[in-house]
Amino acid sequence: MKQLFFVVLILFGLKASCQNEISTEMLNAFRKDFKESPKSAALQNAISSNSLNALTINRNSLADVDVFFSHQVKTAGITDQKSSGRCWMFTGFNVLRPVAAANMNSKEIKFSHSYLFFYDQLEKANLFLEGIINTLDKPLDDKRVEWLLKNPIGDGGQWTGVVDLVTKYGVVPEDVMPESYHSENTSAMSRILATNLRANATKLRQMHADGKALKIIQEHKTSMVNEVYRILALSLGEPPISFQWRFEDKEGNISPLETYTPKSFYEKWIHVNLSDYVMFMNDPSRPYYKLYEIDYDRHTVDGGNWKYINLPTKEIKKFAVESIKSNEAMYFSCDVGKQLDMSRGYLDTSNFAYQQLFDVNLSMNKAERIQTFSSGSSHGMALVAVDVDENGNPVKWLLENSWGMKGHKGHLIMTDEWFDEYMFRLVVHKKYITKEVLDILKTEAIMLPPWDPMFSPEF
Q: Active-site residue among 94, 182, 401, 408?
């Protein structure tokens, strides 16, 4: 068909030098090519009236989903992030909740996402305004200033945000600071916060242009952060400084009523050293076995930038299997929208045949998808199970999601091939990592800019 199309172009007298614009002759050739295809009419009728997933689902694999796993972590109940981009926080908590549940001898424990979200937004606002102050001498079209103004605040994030926020502010049980409408539906509040921050960024830059001293500018910045605190307190409620709490264990025993601070609660019932976890990335567009850092992309001014080791997936999987066998869940992020059959909660590279339906080229390898912004990490979940064959090789994996009971009972099942293509980040405790890989952490990190195609927050 493509050869016939080019013959048609030649018959219409089109030359290579004239093909830099869409001409009438070219459009006529397109129309002729489309009409002469015997399948065009039938495909048009089908595609224009149905969802692409319904038309491209691979029926040969519909009965292939095996929901059993050879090794599975004990978890502490399905959660729901609702209409928010807080998957990174839910995932981080889903890694920590089984630890707390085991220490309490409890079936289930849920932490307050609203509590930590309050401080996440407050810290991000302060970080943004500090970024504006640090770039006062730069023009508006400077790349970093432009990036800051395009991304003043958001509800997305990733593992290092969990580490820095929990370490600084601790955690509280969900019933101590329940969800609010705006913690579960973040878009309206996010728009107000973004507008407020951009307006105040303009004010800070004008103060600098007027020759105001840096001390005066910093004082105004503090009052601007206070404005953000007010928005958050009105929308989410104020976080508790201390609280009284007790719980029921598996045997029905009621614990003593104790007074906690958020940090003392974390220290008593979780007491995990979050600095012992290592983030891995699989980015085939860059050299493996190297340490990378993303400049100025963090949740707090006093926190850490993203830092990760880039490894082939076969190496990352070895650490993941060991962690699951030891009953430890992991923070996992991926491009969840690719080849997801949500009706079954199934992630498989052969779920949908879009390329075959349209008879067009959609083929790229993972490196090419990254470099062209076609694929990147979009969602965080907890990796909680693996199914291995008789030789110990992974066949499929299980992800604990934060979308309520959607998918496979609140989970997504992922084939090993999908893991290779669309997994991006995994956080593993250092005790499951080889010395050779851990030694990479001692090397000097390669600094990357926050606008790099690989580095958008999970939602």
A: 401
